[in-house]
Amino acid sequence: MVFYFALWFREKERATATGLFLLAAPVTYLVGAPLSTALMHYVTLGDIAGWRWMLFLEGLPAIVGGVLCYRYLLDSPQKATWLTQSEKDWLAAEFEREKASQPPVTHLGTWQALTNPIILYLSVIYFLSQVGALGIGYWLPQIVQNLSAAFSLTQIGLIAGLPYAAAGVGLVIWARLSDRFYERKFFTAIPLLLGAIGLFVAGTTQDPYLGMAAITLALTGIFATKSPFFAMLTQLFSKPTVAVAAAIISSLGNCGGFVGPYIVGVVKKATGTSSAGLFVLSGALLLAALMTLFIVIPRHKSKQASLQALKMKEQ
């Protein structure tokens, strides 16, 4: 999708576009759990178990979506019948103007990309962010219960959804700000740092309200970092290379989704509390934030183009 957005959106709009796409993740966490529970308990047609109906019904939208994407997602604005020719020409001219004002970016083949140090470096950053994201996501209900044993299972489910609601709002706002200031690197590092702070506070406090506020801050930071992070790829690589780079980074980085819950589980077993595991996740996010600050983006593109974009927006 990062490559697809590069074909359709100007660079100063890509973080917002990516953010709206990634908004599906917190919405899924927010809606998916109660929906799945309802399907398992209340859909019992025939002799088919509720959990089978859940898998069937929740799988249908993905199948329909795949067909619709194949039918309607075009790989070029020039093929869009719902755009006028003048709109197509304007967008093509905007892309050409961007290309002319940019310094040379890296173009890599598939095998070169697999061993490219920049891509591998970015993969480590994304891996660390996913360690924190899925580590806390998997154990969030247990963490909420630890914060206050007075919560019922229903309350835990509802409370665990609140941080994702806040994360969805924060994700969109942060993506728009990243586009507004035409800045990617610091807009990636700052929410990672906030996520690290949130997890650290959540692991130290015994106050359930402060704990939930800290977890909300952490998840908001974790989700907010994704849009500017992936939008940053177009500042470093050519459009064809972006597709390969995003695939490699996502594939390697998502391995953190296994490591994060595993770490929390191991630490919880050793210490008897999941709070200690939050410190490890906090450290992972802190390291990711520090590593992000060392990414080198061509000055011409990140600074001069920023001023140009702001001037164009004011006109």
TrEMBL record:
Gene3D superfamilies for this protein: MFS general substrate transporter like domains (1.20.1250.20)
Where it sits in the cell: the answer is: Membrane
Q: Please provide the record's keywords in A-Z order.
A: Membrane, Transmembrane, Transmembrane helix, Transport
Q: Which Pfam families match?
A: MFS_1
SUPFAM superfamilies, alphabetically?
A: MFS general substrate transporter
Kindly report the protein's main subcellular placement as a broad class: membrane
Q: What is this protein called?
A: Major facilitator superfamily (MFS) profile domain-containing protein
